[in-house]
Amino acid sequence: DAGITQSPRHKVTETGTPVTLRCHQTENHRYMYWYRQDPGHGLRLIHYSYGVKDTDKGEVSDGYSVSRSKTEDFLLTLESATSSQTSVYFCAISEPGRRQISFGPGTRLTVT
Amino acid sequence: DAKTTQPNSMESNEEEPVHLPCNHSTISGTDYIHWYRQLPSQGPEYVIHGLTSNVNNRMASLAIAEDRKSSTLILHRATLRDAAVYYCILTSNTGNQFYFGTGTSLTVIP
Fold first, then answer.
1. Would you state the torsion angle of the CA atoms of residues B10, B110, A1, B103, taken in this order, to the nearest 10 degrees?
2. Is A45 on the interface with B (CB under 8 A)?
3. Adjacent-strand bridge partners of B81
4. What's CA B43's distance to the chain center, in Å?
5. Are B26 and B1 spatial neighbours (Cβ–Cβ below 8 Å)?
6. pLDDT per residue rounded down to tens, chain A (112 residues)
7. A42: which residues sit within 8 A by CB, 6+ positions away?
8. Which of A26, A61, B62, B66 holds its CA 20 to 30 A away from the CA of A81?
């Protein structure tokens, strides 16, 4: 998986609790992304980062925040998890001009 | 971002060619056409991309219509391992935003 790890790989949490998902890359790629995947909706972009401390919203950013303090790490935070945020979350990376995006293994999050 | 339209699902017999269509009628002159596929329980993986000319690689071929408003991913000989969801996406000239949609679920029949 192109030097991309996600942690945790599985998590069950209760409604209202904060949750942070971590994406770590060893490729030194400039761009990092968070997607969620749900049946019937395909892959949807939540947030992305185009450099350290530079982030922007994607298609479905409500209820999520991100931070990137180092090139290699991109954190996704659910401030107060809701059942609608039960999903599989994928991190991805890309490099300007390469025209390819590489995905991590995914994190399965269940909010009860 | 320009949108793409793909059939929800397709079936193919093993060892036969598969043609996966994609419509992108609002494509701009500098948008690249990409194909990715997602095997069960994995993240999507790159298959192929192109701008105007047809492209071939070890995995597949990409045929782009002359007006660029549609494209076709061709798997020359489907195997059971090709059963996956195939995504057709467009990227701008800067090439750093990737919007995936729902894709085409390909079933390969033994």
1. 0
2. yes
3. none
4. 15
5. no
6. 569 999 999 999 999 999 999 999 999 999 999 999 998 888 999 999 999 999 999 999 999 999 999 999 999 999 999 999 999 999 999 988 777 899 999 999 999 9
7. B85, B87, B100, B101, B102, B103
8. A26
Is B18 buried (19+), middle (13-18) or exposed (0-12) by CB count in 10 A?
buried
CA closest to A56 among chain B residues: B97
- Judge contact between B45 and B89, C-beta under 8 A: no
Beta bridge partners of A32: A49, A93
Instruction: Give long-range contacts, CB 8 A cutoff, 24+ apart: A68-71.
Output: A68/A32, A71/A25, A71/A28, A71/A30
- Judged by DSSP in three states, B5 sits in strand
Q: What is the least distance, in Å, from the CA of B39 to any CA of chain A? A: 11
Partners of residue A104 in chain B, C-beta under 8 Å: 43
CA distance A69 to chain B (A): 20
Contact between B101 and A94 using a beta-carbon 8 Å cutoff: no
Chain B stretch 45-74, residues whose beta carbon is closer than 8 A to a beta carbon of chain A: 45-46, 49
Q: Are A12 and A76 in contact (CB under 8 A)?
A: no
